[in-house]
Write a structure and sequence with these properties.
Elements (H helix, E strand, L loop, with lengths): L3 E7 L1 E2 L2 E2 L4 E5 L4 E5 L6 H8 L7 E5 L7 E4 L13 H6 L3 H4 L7 H13 L15 H14 L4 E5 L7 H13 L6 E6 L2 H4 L5 E4 L8 E4 H4 L2 H8 L3 E6 L2 E6 L5
Parallel strand pairs: 5-9, 5-10, 7-8, 8-9
Antiparallel strand pairs: 1-4, 1-6, 2-3, 10-11, 12-13
Helix pairs in contact: 4-5
């Protein structure tokens, strides 16, 4: 049974859709990639799924009950000026479970420490968040989302600004959460970065082209990607990994 079903959902702002209708279901342990060029509507779709924006049309259905969501926003949208430690930032993930006006208890502290340990950030827990490197901050933000004990974990451009080894390590870490039954949603404009870490893709290119939803192996083709991106795109498999790049335009 799905955790959530999107049924012909249209997303956008002020009554104007930015994408054609989209239908998909998300089950426990799924690994879903939402990919497309910048400005194609990826973040808008996820914000609607999280309940931060109302759908313009269609229905978002929770077959059992509304699942717990964890959300890691783009790093560019995170305010690092607050004088908080890494632990205090991660502890914020518990606030939705604690309830208004209540203080964190021992169980909340232990769950937060476990989340920091899960992402390899426990040793930084007492350091100021603003003093951490970009990659370290990202791990703390993932820990904050994990502390909420999510059933669905959505990460928006989680590897932006990382070098290749750090990017691979972060994606491997995130992918491991599916083994616990957490559904993971990776949002990225870097198709090659997420291709090896998801089973299902949502390919979007804005309002004027249909959204493609399906298994990665079916959608990750040169013909499909070239159509979506409007220029020749090559797909190669090298040592078991997908390598995707734009081919030179023919003169």
């Amino acid at each position: 049974m799905s955790l959530v079903d999107l049924q012909a959902v249209e997303v956008g702002y002020h009554g104007t859709a930015v994408l054609p209708p989209i239908s998909l279901g998300i089950q426990a342990g799924d690994a879903l990639g939402i990919v497309g060029p910048n400005g194609s509507g990826k973040t808008t779709l996820v914000r609607t799924l999280l309940g931060l924006l109302p759908p313009i049309a269609g229905s978002i259905v929770f077959p059992k009950q509304r699942p717990r969501f964890g959300y890691v926003p783009q790093r560019a949208g995170v305010d690092v000026s607050f004088p908080l430690t890494a632990f205090e930032v991660a502890l914020m993930g518990r606030y939705g479970l604690i309830g208004a006006g209540k203080r964190p208890g021992d169980a909340d502290v232990q769950r937060t420490r476990a989340a920091l340990a899960d992402v390899g950030a426990l040793e930084w827990s007492s350091r100021p968040f603003h003093a951490l490197s970009g990659g370290q901050r990202q791990r703390v933000l993932v820990a904050r989302a994990l502390a909420a004990e999510p059933e669905i974990l959505a990460l928006d451009e989680p590897t932006t600004g990382m070098d290749l080894p750090s990017e691979r390590a972060m994606l491997d870490l995130i992918r491991s959460f599916t083994k616990r039954g957490i559904a993971v949603i990776l949002i990225s404009h870097q198709l090659g970065a997420v291709a090896d870490h998801v089973e299902t893709l949502v390919l979007m290119a804005g309002r004027d082209q249909p959204v493609a939803v399906g298994p990665r192996v079916e959608l990750l083709t040169s013909a499909r990607l070239s159509q979506i991106y409007g220029r020749p795109i090559a797909v190669r498999i090298v040592d078991g990994h997908s390598v995707i790049f734009a081919e030179p335009e023919k003169s």
